[in-house]
Amino acid sequence: MKDMNQLNENQAFKMVINAADLAESQDDLEAVETYVSDALRQVHLQSDIFAVSSRNALQAEDKGIDQLKQSIQQFVDVESKSILEQQMIHQLQQMDRSYVEMITEFETNKADISRRQQRLTDYKDKQRLQHQLIDATLQHTDNEVEEQVYHLNARLKLQLLDDVKSVFNSQMTQNSDFNEEKKVSTRVYLDQIHQRLFLEQSLITERIKKYFNKQLTEQIAPIVQQLADLHVIINPQFNFESANIEQPLLHIDFNDMLNALPKQLTKRKILNPNGQRDIHESICQSTLGLLQPQMGLLRQQLELYVKQMAVEAESQFESFEANIQTQINDLLAFDLDTTLINQLKDKHQQLKTILY
């Protein structure tokens, strides 16, 4: 799947919800799927969602696993070929446009050809894709990391409050041992928020990857256009390795959370609406406080990932640069005359038959 991902990330992206067998009801499972779908939509990721049970799959079979296998096989057999075909068509269309421009220039304006040849001579053996483009992209993306972590904190202030309310409420008083109930509720609460936090971590990482790619593409766009005006055609598609951030970074230790519960969390106060509201706010703030060191760790890991992508971009720049210089040398060695123009016209007609 790694090579397939490099073809088209959006179309090869599959979102998997594991341990679906632990859902207490179909409504609970659908609620998780809805939440994941909304989260993906917010970051403009389109993906099929598969609720699977790895435990069921190991014991017998699992419908979600079977559907995921079918989807992957469909991509391998059909969709990947369509993506390659679209890329080839795009490149052929660029070639055809260049042929038409060269024919038109030769027939209408030989002075432009001379000027273009002079610009090609100026570009020869001079690096067009400067490292400053990567530096600018890295700086923009580092700023985006700060923004993403800031907004995550803001979102969690609202989201955590809902989780707190769903766990720490009057139902806790049904247990005669309230201290034991606090432990049980704390464990349930952490299980809930850890799933949410890991999803947020995964989405932010993917968001940063897409942001870096988009920024770098925008940085080089003017140069790509300048080269295209000289019939030097490059179609840079950046392929970056996925971040090696597989472990949940936003994690709270059970004992730390238990010890952070407010002292006013008592049977009497949890039954009082005003007291319950204060308890909820206190637990929410304590949770955010416990998460801040992990937020810093997430920021550091994302910044390291940005630097990793910058190194990969530099390597890919070298490949693009070699392609540019090869085309420049070929164009400078290419002496247009009537015979060659007629050959270009023939090629143009052949491409028209294929493309249009």
UniProtKB/TrEMBL annotation:
<dbReference type="GO" id="GO:0003924">
    <property type="term" value="F:GTPase activity"/>
</dbReference>
<dbReference type="GO" id="GO:0005525">
    <property type="term" value="F:GTP binding"/>
</dbReference>
<dbReference type="GO" id="GO:0016020">
    <property type="term" value="C:membrane"/>
</dbReference>
<keyword id="KW-0342">GTP-binding</keyword>
<keyword id="KW-0472">Membrane</keyword>
<keyword id="KW-0378">Hydrolase</keyword>
<dbReference type="InterPro" id="IPR027094">
    <property type="entry name" value="Mitofusin_fam"/>
</dbReference>
<protein>
    <submittedName>
        <fullName>GTPases (Dynamin-related)</fullName>
    </submittedName>
</protein>
<keyword id="KW-0547">Nucleotide-binding</keyword>
